[in-house]
User: Fold this.
Amino acid sequence: MSETELPEAPAPEQDELDEDDRLRPEFVDAVLDAVAEGDDEAARALVEPLHPADIADLFELTPHEDRGPLAKALKDLLDADVFAEMNDYVREDLIDALTPTEVADLASELDTDDAVAIIEDMDEAEQRAVLRALDPDDRAAIEEALSYPEESAGRLMQRELIAVPDHWTVGDAIDFLRGHEELTTDFWEIFVVDAGHHPVGTCQLSWILRTPGNIAIADVMKREQTLIPVDMDQEEVALRFQKYALISAAVVDSANRLVGMITVDDIVHIIQEEAGEDTLLLSGAGDGDINEPIRLTVRTRLMWLVVNLGTAMIASSVVGVFESTIAGFATLAILMPIVSGMGGNAGTQTLAVVVRAIATNQLTDSNTRWMVMRELRIAAANGAALGVLIGIGTFLIFGRADLALVIATAMFTNNITAGLGGVLVPVTLDRMNIDPAVSSAVFVTTLTDTMGFFSFLGLATLWGLHA
Amino acid sequence: MSETELPEAPAPEQDELDEDDRLRPEFVDAVLDAVAEGDDEAARALVEPLHPADIADLFELTPHEDRGPLAKALKDLLDADVFAEMNDYVREDLIDALTPTEVADLASELDTDDAVAIIEDMDEAEQRAVLRALDPDDRAAIEEALSYPEESAGRLMQRELIAVPDHWTVGDAIDFLRGHEELTTDFWEIFVVDAGHHPVGTCQLSWILRTPGNIAIADVMKREQTLIPVDMDQEEVALRFQKYALISAAVVDSANRLVGMITVDDIVHIIQEEAGEDTLLLSGAGDGDINEPIRLTVRTRLMWLVVNLGTAMIASSVVGVFESTIAGFATLAILMPIVSGMGGNAGTQTLAVVVRAIATNQLTDSNTRWMVMRELRIAAANGAALGVLIGIGTFLIFGRADLALVIATAMFTNNITAGLGGVLVPVTLDRMNIDPAVSSAVFVTTLTDTMGFFSFLGLATLWGLHA
Assistant:
């Protein structure tokens, strides 16, 4: 990557990062070797030029047991900004080693939202100790933030923002900004409020810069605003930022009073997390955080696997019904998993598309019927193609037209089942307010397994197939 | 949602949107009914208050065949901003019905990046016709953008930006902004350049507003900048924006000269797409766009299903080897799919976690070995638990200790296979520069199917199990 430290110098090569902005393994090893040898100075010299986000990455790439010594060696390079960028589990690890006063010092350097992110994961006794060590203003702000539900706008927002009365001129606003050193510098828009502190408009800083000072701010501001209710879920906040291409947005309480501001840089990682979690949830891998303690990971995954073991046994009991057919013609056992497995694959495809479309608000009540028809047509086309292929293959390998016809029919039937199930299961769960990403896969694979065994072995039995 | 149109009035209820910012089906129906009845005025009156993003959604929720009449009824409400917000396929649909001059008119109203997004999907003859209809400046800008690779920073950037020389004062910059009406108003930072037009610093607008006019801009600007090479892939651009919490960034050519600007609102939907595509790619559902023509969707999905049919037949041939064992003991056919299926589930969990960790740069060469050990430990724990469970279940149902022991051992073995395969397959593909999300699943499920059948039936044969 190209970062210019000084305008005169050519952009220095950043040896510590590869072309994808990842820390090079040799760099990580060099730092850890220095720490292991007790050469803290060398470690600090290596890490000093890094961006806080990269220092956070360094801790994530460091084995669990080496994080403490690394933190000790880096001392104040490990500042509040680094903690704000760090993975939750890795941060908890390090925070556990600090005293409440040290945590309070870190928190007081940060905007409310970042301070809350650090404090919200601590247990209650520790939280109280840290809050006591904070100065009263910071404490009040953080306590209020903690009073909102987890993953709500109230936790995400910062209280540091610029709000000006609607009777001011642009010049008044500029004088106010120049005259108050204590105000935040991290803002991209200013909010215009009425006497009751209700937001009535938003002003991009570029508009203020482009407008003569004597113009009323009410004539510059945009009156249509996208306001965020303080109890809104962070996933909805993220979708709203994305849909309306927001840079920042005012957060309002139930009386529509301005209580905070959310900026897009706090939203970007939520958009990324929420968009990425479908894969993990569909597979039953929980939040899939690689820094999660192994015990928690095993518990999450095992729960899902045990549920699937139960459904697999149900599907297998269908095979049990046809035990005598199989005993008379063992070739059926060879082909049977192909029918169920291919149904599972087709169902997973439909499921992936539908779950994604629901999560991004593209699939709504308005187009559900259209979506079902669409997936049915796709399933019919794919089912027919796969049926013909497996039919031909079976005939060529086993030389039996009856077996070929049975497996082709079963394959087509199971594809239709997969297409229908792949849409109807997640849509139904969503209408019942159950997250379709979490539970759909279990139902759909049970459906395609059962239907795969039943259609293939059932047809074979009806047809009287035997060796 | 709460939008205030006029500060005096209470926030009007937005009847057209539900609580998740989705258009209500009744609203969509009302608009389409009005169009069907030829009452264009009524349709326009309903749609007029909507945000461009919502008008774009309306077209996406409208059945294919009704989109033309809807566009005709809405006339100029269907403006450039609406096209910029629209799904690619739906936009192509509508753009196809326009003349090159009409498309050129739309494009000239937009920033370069949005204009390019509209034009890049047209076929070459149409592109040329549209470019001819543009005025020379716009044409040059768009032609240059099109000269960069698809999905690169050059396509994403806008050329409308504010750059000022490094010898100016803050006051000079403000005078420049006030004195030039033709400049863009959509910017959040200004870039400071040297005589060779190389960026030497970035200035947030808030800093300019907070600084007295006589201060040199070089004393206000931040010298550490994150510069984006013009040929960088959009996925890397998105990760960089996210990692360093950028609002906007300068784009530079190979000589490090400032050529454009990317703002975070253009990146947000890329972050969302790139993060969400893993689920779709892992399942072989392509880009999973529900507006894609059915023919393309069938082709994408069928290709993947056919590959899987091939691997399923390979796995089944393993069953074929043990045909006589099954013929002698058909109960094995009942239990066999449980072992292979559970291995597939466990493999999918590991795969989902690993693919996500690779995509977000969390899994790098520095921690691959640690990750393999982590997944092995998880697989051992889950495999042991599932082995005990299925062993007990088998003993209770079939009353045979030998069968229970065989399936328990096979289950454990297949979980270990799944854990190892789930890490090693995507890591290896990634090192070979193959997207692990696209190809991993085929390899891993083939592995778990084959190993599931082989370990279970092989052990049963070795043990000499029979009815």
Q: What stands out?
A: The radius of gyration of chain A is 30 Å. Chain A is about 65% helix and 5% strand. Residues 397 and 404 of chain A are 10 Å apart (CA to CA).
